[in-house]
Amino acid sequence: MDKKSLSEADIRTQFITPAIVGAGEAKWDLATQVREEVYFTKGRVIVRGRTVRRGEAKKADYLLYYRPNIPLAVVEAKDNNHTVGAGMPQALDYAETLDVPFAYSSNGDAFLEHDRTVTSGPVTREIPLDQFPSPSELWSRYCTAKGLSAAEEAVARQDYYHDDASGKAPRYYQLTAVNRTVEAIARGANRILLVMATGTGKTYAAFQIIWRLWKAGVKKRILFLVDRNILADQTRTNDFKPFGQAMTKITNRTVDKSFEIYLSLYQAVTGPEEDMNTYRQFSPDFFDLVIVDECHRGSAAEDAAWRQVLEYFASATQIGLTATPRETKDVSNIEYFGEPLYTYSLRQGIADGFLAPYKVVRVALDKDIDGWRPTKGQTDKYGKPIEDREYNITDFDRNLVLEQRTAVVAARVTQFLTETDRFSKTIIFCEDVEHAERMRQAMVNANPDLAAANSRYVMRITGDSDEGKAQLDNFIDPESAFPVVATTSRLLGTGVDAQTCRLIVLDKSIKSMTEFKQIIGRGTRINEDYNKLYFTIMDFRRATALFADPDFDGDPVQIYEPPPEGPMEPPDEPPGGGPDEPPEGPIIVDPPPPPPPRVKYYVHDAPVRVVMERVQYLGEDGRLITESIRDHSRKAVRQAFRSLDEFLTAWNDADRKQAVLEELAAKGVFLDELAEQVGRDYDAFDLVCHVAFDQPPLTRRERAAKVRKRNVFASYGAEARAVLEALLQKYADAGITSVESLEILKVDPLTALGTPMEIVALFGGKPGYVAAVRELKAALYTEAA
């Protein structure tokens, strides 16, 4: 057998898989321990205007597991024209991402091993094909490197909860968080911090941690603390449901010590009076494990109520969960829990395609920029004398209400919804409850038709509104059409899983990085069933510039500051200009003090207008794109193909030209948008050559005419020439992709020439037909642009 002639798939099937599985009981179980072609990311969501596509997902050739969800090794395969170690760079990249200790590469001749647990001595070695390590060998080497005792090892390999009916399985980053945590606790760690972006499934990860430790018998009584009732209820009915009768929720300040898993609001077990501190009804050593959800909210601050609970149960292992790592430093969570054991950021979640990217529409109003000062002796609409001073954006809607400003904001939000979808779920964050009510009224006035059709089109959902809170479940339910627009101040900032929220409006001054990130987190969840793949932030307070944190959040896919009279929806091609720089100096994040009683003035006759709006895109690499789509596409193509000759070689060698186009699309080259700018009559081949390599383009009809002029099909019979002529016309009308598919034989005018089988028979069978189409494509691209 000539190995050199085999494809990579053949090498895997005939050599690598048999070598891994091996023979005897000590080898890998193909059904439970070996997974081939494992996609572990979804592929970044790439947004251009209204066009949304997914980039290429990451795929490992093999993942090897000691037990389900406990990965040990990644294996990358190459065909036999490559060296044994040719796949190692990719294997190491995947091993680091997946937190896997062993990486292997093979071309079917042998294996190259890289042991990531080794800190001294040989790290790599070549292994004969018939000597691939067994699961028990790799697990033993891993445990030895980690210094795990027999008891610790038993905890580290404890099974996950698995529900065959739901088919739900942990994502790779959840596995890393869970496995690291369980192993650390097995080794005696008692304070752990996990940082996972909003929408990445912190609660599900916490469930698996608790389940494994509980089933292993090392943690028998567990307290899970939250600070929102909706979080406790969602946790109990969703992720924690498998605990069944072993679980209870602490309510009415009553304690039943017969359960093993306890859910509680910290408010339900603490209070200003001693008799309200229900947690003291438990003995200090009652709980083995305490998990604090959303611990960034100050639970570790020395004077916080949660800190009292944590210190009371000091003997328990304590885990803090948060989405905001930098803020935890500011409120001393790092000091209390230690450095994060694992971090999965919003930036990484967006890059992997698990979280939704976002556009930013920044709107600048004249009074926000210039400020406003009353005339001498001016009174507000209620006759109250207005304090004579300069009022700026931090005063508006807190100390001073410019009613026309509220109307302008509502009008711009309505314009955006009108240009996109008036039934997109929208949250408008306001300064306070009174502002939220005024905004509700302004949105009703801006949308009188929809508000008249259904009174719930716009709702104020705030802590003091029973009517609004009653509609909260409907707002977050993807299947419920109403409410569409929710105005709020703080209630929707956290603890709300709004999967289909497409627009978040910021019309409040945000002084906390934590609050900002939690607000943005309301839109980061993806729901493909409802075509929710990205969302838009409309910022009237420049919060997105002030709190930019690229290391954690990633940049937006677009920042748009349209002209005053221009459209609100971001255009496909952004105007020039770079991102705004955040202010110099440290950002001070302190818990906001209780607001003092303040006077609020209402001014109804101060005109307000929009002076500027702006847009930028986010590239495949997560960096802002400030150039046009045309310039960005040029760079993307040249990164994939260094020269015109290299592109032409790849194009001419490809049996399916569509494969080359798909590769370019995965790198962020949007041919439809380029066609809008360069011309719809040009072939995708010409668009690439023209934009990336400055070649003069030919239209599809011009290319087809050149083929006809050269009489390329003279060697075929009359009927076969008619088929090729029809295919050539289809190319001229629709492009090369249509010609490459056999489905083209089922549409006019090909159907007039016979059935697909009859047409193929004109060329002596399918191989002859495929060869003729290949000849047609070669003739079309004989002239390289």
Question: What labels describe this entry?
Answer:
seven-stranded parallel beta sheet; single chain; 16% strand; flat; 28 strands; 785 residues; alpha/beta; 31 helices
Please describe what this structure looks like.
β5, α2 and β6 form a beta-alpha-beta unit. α5 runs parallel beside α6, α14 packs across α15 and α27 runs antiparallel to α28. This protein is an alpha/beta fold. 36% of the residues lie in helices and 16% in strands. It has 31 helices and 28 strands. About 3% of the residues have low confidence. The strands form six sheets. A nine-stranded mixed sheet has the order 17-26-24-16-23-22-19-21-20. It has a seven-stranded parallel sheet with strand order 11-12-10-13-14-9-15.
Give a brief description.
The chain has 31 helices and 28 strands.
Topology of helices and strands:
Elements: H1 8-21, E1 34-39, E2 45-48, E3 51-54, E4 59-67, E5 70-77, H2 88-98, E6 102-106, E7 110-115, E8 124-128, H3 135-146, H4 150-156, H5 172-186, E9 191-196, H6 202-216, E10 222-226, H7 229-237, E11 247-249, E12 261-265, H8 266-269, E13 289-292, H9 305-312, E14 317-322, H10 325-330, H11 333-337, E15 342-344, H12 346-352, E16 358-362, E17 364-365, H13 366-370, E18 400-402, H14 403-419, E19 425-429, H15 433-446, H16 448-453, E20 458-460, H17 466-470, H18 472-476, E21 485-488, E22 501-506, H19 513-520, E23 535-539, H20 543-546, H21 550-553, E24 558-561, E25 601-603, E26 610-615, E27 617-618, E28 624-625, H22 629-640, H23 644-653, H24 657-666, H25 671-678, H26 684-693, H27 700-709, H28 718-734, H29 736-740, H30 756-761, H31 766-780
Parallel strand pairs: 5-6, 9-14, 9-15, 10-12, 10-13, 11-12, 13-14, 16-23, 16-24, 18-25, 19-21, 19-22, 20-21, 22-23
Antiparallel strand pairs: 1-4, 2-3, 4-5, 6-7, 7-8, 17-26, 24-26, 27-28
Helix pairs in contact: 4-5, 5-6, 14-15, 22-26, 27-28
